[in-house]
């Protein structure tokens, strides 16, 4: 898959869509991390990762919408509903931070605060993907 390209094959069920979006988000976030680490290790320029970060954010927006729909279906299961909505909130905030950090790094490649924040936010996205959303699909 080319860097940051998110292929979404929409199926008939929200669960299938969610799984594909989760996989694409995880792949794209991993690529963002690899680009950042590689540039740091090689003391080279970081490519413009803003388009990729924005693609991740768009995919997460879809995922959050799906999670909200599924949470509504679990209205009688308040615990599941709360966990899904909290996970959606965390991943949405983390992806917004990734976009903000990508923009800061585009302006200043040596911004250590943005580099650390990018990696921390990427970790949050991957943890939410592993720990929360995957439990429901």
Structural write-up:
By secondary structure, this protein is an all-alpha fold. Helix content is 75%, strand content 0%. It has 4 helices and no strands. The protein has helices spanning 14-42, 50-73, 78-107, 112-131. The longest helix is centred in the C-terminal third of the chain and has 30 residues, at 78-107. The two termini are 24 Å apart.
Largest sheet: none
Compute the gyration radius: what is it?
Answer: 16 Å
Shape descriptor reads elongated
Residue windows where pLDDT falls under 50 for at least 5 positions: 1-13
Quaternary structure of the protein:
single chain
% residues in beta strands:
under 5%
Which class of secondary structure composition applies to the elements?
Answer: mainly alpha
The tally of beta strands, per DSSP, is 0
Instruction: Count every helix, treating DSSP H or I runs of 4 or more residues as helices.
Output: 4
State the distance separating the first and last CA atoms.
24 Å
Mean pLDDT reading: 76
Topology as H/E string?
A: HHHH
What level of helicity do the residues show?
Answer: over 70%
